[in-house]
Amino acid sequence: MSVERHRARTEDQKLFRRQEILSAAQSHFEDVGYESFSMANLAKLSGVAKGTLYLYFTTREEVFLALYAQSLLSWSDYFVSGLHVGMDDREYCVRLHNTAMAADGFVSLLVRLEHIIEHNVSFSQMMESKRLFAKRIGYIAEATAPALGLTQAQATELVKAMGVLLIGVSGADQGPNLQDESVPEDVQSFIDSFASEKLFVTNACFIIRGIRADKGSRA
Questions:
Q1: Where are the beta strands (DSSP E) in the chain?
Q2: Which residues lie below 8 Å from residue 155, measured CB to CB, with a gap of 6+?
Q3: What is the set of domains in the chain, with CATH numbers?
Q4: What percentage of the chain carries pLDDT values higher than 90?
Q5: How far is it, in rounded angstroms, from Cα 86 to Cα 92?
């Protein structure tokens, strides 16, 4: 069992303690998922009293908002690092889907962001989150434009659409595990047609072509 640590007093100590709590929260989230995430257990895993934990995060949604921000930053940096001029549309879409799905809790938190998480944090925290998201859209769009031969306006429109599409396909892979079952070929083919990567890539490529063809988005 973790022993409670001395209370952080300097700003550097507080920032370090906050990051320790978030590291423990990430592990807890990966272990139990969103619904079973507990502030009481987080306090134990962080080695702080529950009252001390609430000095840093007053609701579990504040924890999730912070985890989302971390994940957004790390995922977008990694995604952008693999873009290059003249990139094939499909290659771009596959990279976006696969890196986002592989990022620590990113899509799971993105799906819940506007419906649950932002309803249980302060207005100022929500505004800070919106500003971060807007900056990251601009950052990704800036790298996307030369990669796909789009204008900045087209790339911004595309990145926004990709986020909506990513949320839409996120639940496609949550069916029962049939790995050890003998599934008929026709049924397996039907199931595979609804895999999140296939749905995302197919529709994302359609969106890219549509944006290129839309003269009004070239400004």
A1: none
A2: 141, 142, 144, 145, 148
A3: 1-57 (1.10.10.60), 67-217 (1.10.357.10)
A4: 72
A5: 10
